[in-house]
Amino acid sequence: MEMSRGLAADRHVPVMLTEILDALAPSLARSGALYVDATLGMGGHTEAVLERFGEARAIGIDRDTEALRLAGERLARFGDRFEGVHAVNTEVADVLPRPADAMLFDLGVSSLQLDELDRGFSYRADAPLDMRMDQTSDGPTAADVLNTASQDELERILKTYGEERFARKIAHAVVKEREKQPWTTSGRLVEMLRSVIPLASQRQSGHPAKRTFQALRIEVNDELRGWEQAVTSALDSLAVGGRLAVLSFHSLEDRITKRAFATASASTAPPGLPVELPEHRPEFALVTRGAAVPSEDELERNPRSASVRLRVIERTRAKGSQS
Ligand SMILES: C[S@@+](CC[C@H](N)C(=O)[O-])C[C@H]1O[C@@H](n2cnc3c(N)ncnc32)[C@H](O)[C@@H]1O
């Protein structure tokens, strides 16, 4: 048991932990507070919440059954204060018994997923091109995307989700290669990327497969569209005084968060109205002005946190209320 807890704890370092606990503290200190970790992962953030806020209970959602199993072992010592739920968080409101006092979305992939080499997330091992976070879903795998998407679609995926400069060349090579033999393994893809991406660029921009693998993972798991839906559902399921914290790793994720939070915290009064009527007052207020970033110290300790942005918002009045 002790070993399993150690294992889960060692497999993913929770990002911006102190900043998140401090930002959520006013809502978590309330008696019987409900904390929702909508991307449970290895349960690092949830463990810290349950330790620091002795009266809080937590619901942890993950689409990855292996993450749920490991986090479940790690959090078993909290008894019925913790409940794990296997679900996709796009409709988080449907999973909750009541509005949440605090909620966290730590978007993206976990170190567990990257480390489990046979799941195809890593370009460092030759494995089946799977990349589904939910191993029970019959959704498309990365191999399916490479074998069925049109060349234009592949180019768009690589350019938008991977910010890959050589998206067109790579998409062309993917289609040419699959005419010879369908894509099945990551090793062959890495080899092809090494041959297509100019050497000078490989020297400057890190591993040649990094951006393509990120793009495929985002497409396979429908991460950006999913996040657009999830953020609306999350805002809907916050109690008054409840806070939502979001850690984004990709600039497009952060843009979606920023836009959703700006809309939620803006007055709906028509322009030119001299006085704001109660029904036009926003239902939310921003807790972080702009996005918070990790400290120098954290960046040094955990390079994975390099691109992260934290935004926090609070529900200040009930949905549709006029008070
Ligand atoms: C970055 S990790 C979370 C790490 C966690 N905060 C910790 O400290 O251990 C993200 C997790 O969210 C899960 N996830 C990503 N998108 C999801 C979605 N749409 N619905 C449910 N879980 C999702 C992934 O499977 C992964 O386990």
From TrEMBL:
<dbReference type="GO" id="GO:0070475">
    <property type="term" value="P:rRNA base methylation"/>
</dbReference>
<dbReference type="GO" id="GO:0005737">
    <property type="term" value="C:cytoplasm"/>
</dbReference>
<feature type="binding site">
    <location>
        <position position="113"/>
    </location>
    <ligand>
        <name>S-adenosyl-L-methionine</name>
    </ligand>
</feature>
<dbReference type="Pfam" id="PF01795">
    <property type="entry name" value="Methyltransf_5"/>
</dbReference>
<comment type="function">
    <text>Specifically methylates the N4 position of cytidine in position 1402 (C1402) of 16S rRNA.</text>
</comment>
<keyword id="KW-0949">S-adenosyl-L-methionine</keyword>
<protein>
    <recommendedName>
        <fullName>Ribosomal RNA small subunit methyltransferase H</fullName>
        <ecNumber>2.1.1.199</ecNumber>
    </recommendedName>
</protein>
<feature type="binding site">
    <location>
        <position position="62"/>
    </location>
    <ligand>
        <name>S-adenosyl-L-methionine</name>
    </ligand>
</feature>
<feature type="binding site">
    <location>
        <position position="106"/>
    </location>
    <ligand>
        <name>S-adenosyl-L-methionine</name>
    </ligand>
</feature>
<dbReference type="GO" id="GO:0071424">
    <property type="term" value="F:rRNA (cytosine-N4-)-methyltransferase activity"/>
</dbReference>
<feature type="binding site">
    <location>
        <begin position="43"/>
        <end position="45"/>
    </location>
    <ligand>
        <name>S-adenosyl-L-methionine</name>
    </ligand>
</feature>
<dbReference type="InterPro" id="IPR023397">
    <property type="entry name" value="SAM-dep_MeTrfase_MraW_recog"/>
</dbReference>
<dbReference type="InterPro" id="IPR002903">
    <property type="entry name" value="RsmH"/>
</dbReference>
<dbReference type="InterPro" id="IPR029063">
    <property type="entry name" value="SAM-dependent_MTases_sf"/>
</dbReference>
<keyword id="KW-0489">Methyltransferase</keyword>
<comment type="similarity">
    <text>Belongs to the methyltransferase superfamily. RsmH family.</text>
</comment>
<keyword id="KW-0963">Cytoplasm</keyword>
<keyword id="KW-0698">rRNA processing</keyword>
<keyword id="KW-0808">Transferase</keyword>
